[in-house]
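HUMAN: Quick job: go over this next protein and say how the chain folds.
***
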Amino acid sequence: MMTLDFTGKRVVVAGGSRGIGRACAALFAEAGASVSICARSEGPLRETANAIGAHAAVCDLADGAAIKHYIAEAAAALGGIDVLVNNASGFGAADTEEGWAASLNVDVMATTRASREAVPHMGQGASIVNVSSISGFRPSLRTPAYAAVKALLINFTQSQAAALAKQGIRVNGVAPGSIEFPGGSWEARRTSDPALYNRILGSIPFGRLGTPEEVAQVVLFLASPFAGWVTGHTVVVDGGQLLS
């Protein structure tokens, strides 16, 4: 039976206090890894860190200097980095200056900056997993900026994989569909915009939205030796949502 064992591994989750990031951090910790997480809001960050026994530091992932400081602190606390999960999103949806700035500064630049800072602390067999979205595979009238930067991450994952292969570092991604969890945007839309919620719900062949844990399980697989010959790919985790 396949067992995902990360005993002795050092895992950094950038954007790890809630949702998919929290689920990733919790599952890595459960699998035996030493984990560090960061997020902008201290309350949820500390609650998650205490719950799973992780190192934690407040970090605004839109701030390049803050990322540099956090990755150095995390690497020192863990004794190196074996896995980096780039999960942060600015959720800049609209085709506005603010929407594009939020999406580019966090979804794109936090990923590139955290990776750049983490790689010197990584060795053979290390892994980076970037969290994109199925929005990156198709046009979007509702969230054009968000969709565009998620498409960029899918392409950048391929470029990263090619660039880091000679160092023995694999780079892959996940593209979640609509994921619902307490305090998340889809839970809020269930009541604030039931028409949109029900339209999305109706587009998923399995008849429900996904959970953060279902995405995290794929992240762990991609970071594990079971995916040791997989690099440069973004795996869709959407219950068939893209099929509709």
